[in-house]
Amino acid sequence: MTEKFTSRIESVLESVDASIVTIDSGGLITDCNSATSRLFGYLREELLGRNVKMLMPSPYRDQHDGYLTHHLNTGENRIIGIGRNVSGLRKNGEEFPLHLSVAKFEDEGTTFFTGIIHDISELYSAQFSINRLGRIIEELDSEVYTFSVDSLQITSANPAAVKNMGYSLKELLGKKPMDLVHGLTEDILRQTLEPLVETRDAEVELQQRFIRQDGSRYHADVNLYLSAAFDPPEFVVIAKDVTERNQMMNSLRQSQKMESIGNLTGGIAHDFNNLLTVILGNLEMLEFDSDNSEQSEMVKEAREAAEMGARLTQRLLSFARRSPLSPTRLDINVKIRDLIELLSRTLGTEVVLRTALADTLYDVNIDESELENALINLCINARDAMPKGGTLLITTSNATLDADSIVDKQIEPGNYVRLEVTDTGCGIATGLIESIFEPFVSTKSSADGTGLGLSMVYGFVKQSGGEISVYSELNLGTTFTIYLPAYLVNEERKSLTGTLEEGHSLESKRVLVAEDNIRVRKLTIKRLEALGHIALDAEDGQQALKLFLSNPQNIDCVFTDVVMKQGMTGYDLAQEIQRIDPNMPILLTSGYAENVVNAEKLVQSGLPLLRKPFSQQDLKEAFQLLFTQNQRH
After folding, report:
1. CATH among 3.30.499.10, 3.30.420.150, 3.30.565.10, 3.20.20.70 for 327-485
2. Per-residue pLDDT at 276 exceeds 50
3. Can you tell me the distance from the alpha carbon of 392 to that of 54, in angstroms, rounded to the nearest whole number?
4. How many whole angstroms from its chain centre is CA 161?
5. What CA–CA distance (Å, rounded) separates 144 from 167?
6. Cis upstream peptide for 613 (omega within 30°)
7. What is the per-residue pLDDT across 350-382, written as a single tens digit (0 to 9) for each?
8. Which CATH class is domain 140-241?
9. Count of H helices and E strands in the chain?
């Protein structure tokens, strides 16, 4: 070779990015280009005459001499002419991946080997990222699909897609989105994809209803885009099953709706109770004073009708969760067994009543009479759903609900008693399921019910800290499921009621009456005077407190409404009076129990509560009990 040609070759070798290293048969470096210095961090002078092993980490360093000797002795090629990926060692001790190709040549009877070395660190890093991304996609809860731009056929799917759809991977591949999405046609899909093809960076977000292999359907949030990472480009679909989220949102909306209806219903019932208090009170007085038997009978019928109205408002208050409960520790199994005979008579001979009660069941802390009413209501509804007869099954069991179990419920995790009432009746129409617990909603004709039975059950369960749900299929039957918190505390709650001593007489008392409804206030004064008491009246809590402060020694007891419009509640008034005179007897009354009227606050106050509307006898017994428990006066 001419000197000029040799110079050109050296110039070319210096300009390439690849590292080129030449060694002799002993492994000593005889030449290298500047790319080698850049790659390994050595000066050219530091490399020439040194063994090439210095550029190799273990185990390649230990194996190199053996490979070289074996080739020289046998002529067998292990790496010569064959590219392979190995590791290199930089001057600073850093190892890195490289691709090595080796060529052998002779020059004036001497054997030389030239290695061409490419740094593949970026390739390895990219491959690592791809592998890592692949593992992430494999482990995603979301479904990931790719499908062809031209044929629209699915080309890949991750395990989440396979699991949720119910197909095998082999069955999914080759299908089209139209096979998996309800109501999707090829025309609609092409229109959706068109902007993605025109603008490569675009992304479409939408919600679709997917169809599983078994025919069941679920809603999913879908992200769709065109990926140039594939050759040719393919569409990528990421679908997130939002069934659980939608259930939670629906449950929240239904809870808010029921709460709003409850607020409206409770307010109406409160006003209605005040009216009934006046009506019943005056009718009682007319009935007592009338000497005309015909008029007395008319008054009696009017009073009984008003009492029916009072019971109706009590149901409304139960739905609104504003009716005070009297919770006691209770074994539901015992209560069900006590009701079997009554329920059997109520259901008639056409309905077979069966029970499946747990051998051991948590106690609950609930109002026993309200549980009885709820059970009877559910059983009567079940009977009416089976006009030609059928089977009614009552079951109980213990249930431990964790965070995952309550995603669609408005209760806390913990231990519960599960009570289920199942019938084999006609079922409930889908359109009625969501509103079945609302007041005045009924599956019966208007002549057969008020539509308050299930709303009363709902109110009782919610006020007891529980949850109620319904599952129904037309012509197959219905199941109502109730969860009530288990009672796991040893301490029994203190009863809010006392017992009236037989024969206890009540002398005349001076009663301070606080009531913001003028009609109720006037009637209460008349009733107290009829019982022989002297009444001092106040139109709100502030006025009552002023009257008390002006002459506390002339007041024997206080009778106050709980909710009054001027800000000071009956509880506030009672607290101020008890601060001055801790022994002052105080009786509360209310037509409803809104936020300030609840069992917890009642327990804290330790004060008795007389529910509106009340009869003259109710008032008399309440005052007798009040002074029986407080012997100061």
Report:
1. 3.30.565.10
2. yes
3. 87
4. 25
5. 14
6. yes
7. 899 999 999 889 999 988 878 888 888 898 888
8. alpha beta
9. 20, 22
According to DSSP, residue 305 is labeled: H
Nearest to 328 by CA among 495, 108, 461: 495
Tokens of 549: 């402060």
Structure-block tokens of residue 177: 């989105």
Backbone phi, psi, residue 179, to 5°: -75, -20
For 510-629, which CATH superfamily applies?
Response regulator (3.40.50.2300)
Distances (CA, A) of 53 to 63, 68, 72, 88, 118: 9, 11, 17, 10, 17
So what's the pLDDT on residue 472? 85
CA distance 497 to 445: 40
Average pLDDT over residues 543-550: 91
Strand partners, 51: 28
Give dist(CA 484, CA 336) in Å, integer: 15
Calpha distance 188→53 (Å, rounded): 64
> Which residue has 């078994």 as its token pair?
214
At 412, the pLDDT band (50, 70, 90 cuts) reads confident
Residues comprising the chain, all counted: 633
User: Count of CB atoms within 10 A of residue 449's CB?
Assistant: 16
| Token pair belonging to 466 | 């529980």
Handedness of CA 266, 269, 271, 277 (dihedral sign): negative
Q: Among 23-37, 302-316, 553-567, 614-628, name the one with the lowest average pLDDT.
A: 302-316
Cα–Cα distances (Å) from 587 to 151, 542, 554, 606, 607, in that order, read 81, 17, 17, 10, 6
Owner of token pair 């909306």: 253
Q: Quick one: which of 167, 190, 170, 169 has its CA closest to 180?
A: 167
**Per-residue tokens: 358:** 């747990």
CA distance 93 to 76: 32
Supply 409's token pair: 């419920």
Neighbours of 123 (CB within 10 A): 13
Instruction: Evaluate whether 339 touches 371 at the Cβ level (below 8 Å).
Output: no
DSSP state of 541: H
When mean pLDDT is compared across 13-17, 406-410, 511-515, the lowest value belongs to 406-410
Name the band, by pLDDT with cuts 50, 70 and 90, for residue 429: confident
* DSSP annotation string for 485-517: EB---SSPPPPS---PPTT------EEEEE-S-
CATH code linked to domain 13-121: 3.30.450.20
* 356: CB partners within 8 A, 6+ apart: 393, 394, 395, 396
Burial zone of 90 (CB within 10 Å; 0-12 exposed, 13-18 middle, 19+ buried): middle
CA distance 405 to 228: 42
Whole-angstrom distance, CA of residue 62 vs CA of residue 27: 13
Give me the residues paired with residue 451 across strands.
Answer: none
Helix (H) or strand (E) segment spanning residue 175:
none
Which amino acid, residue 432? L
Q: 320 CB contacts (<8 Å, ≥6 apart)?
A: 262, 263, 265, 266, 269, 459, 592
The two tokens of residue 538 are 């106040």
Q: How many angstroms from the chain centroid is the CA of residue 216?
A: 22
**Strand ranges in 486-619 using DSSP code E only, listed in sequence order:** 510-514, 534-538, 557-561, 586-590, 609-611
Is residue 321 a contact partner of residue 259, using CB atoms and an 8 Å limit? no
- Integer-rounded Cα radius of gyration of the chain: 43
Q: Residue 398 and residue 484: Cα distance in Å, rounded?
A: 10
Q: How far apart are the first and last CA of the chain?
A: 133
Average pLDDT of the chain is 79
Count of Cβ atoms closer than 10 Å to residue 115 Cβ: 22
The beta strands (E) that lie in 228-350 are given as: 234-241, 327-330
